[in-house]
Amino acid sequence: MKTTSTTKHLWSKISEWSMKAGAASARPVMLLYFVMTDTTKPRRLRTAIARKLSRMFSDNTLVPALIPADVTLSLSQKYITPEMEQRTDSILGRLTSLYSPFTFK
User: What's the predicted TM-score (pTM) here?
Assistant: First the structure.
């Protein structure tokens, strides 16, 4: 999947929300984002994830719904690589250390 302005905008929304929500809530969402942007994953899965994340972080939503992310994450669990998990943990560690007294992992 090419990095487009829409993908960049979605990432900025996820990052901003992650700082507020905390690492435990943000981890499934970030993992889904990384599965969505991996071109080796099935297109149908990536499209489903893009729809879920777009709905969660649309400007019309006052509070992002976490349930769709959890359901989608459980369906895409086999596509998550150790590298995606390391990248997610690294990002969340940096974000949460700036805004909370604890760090992730």
Answer: 0.74
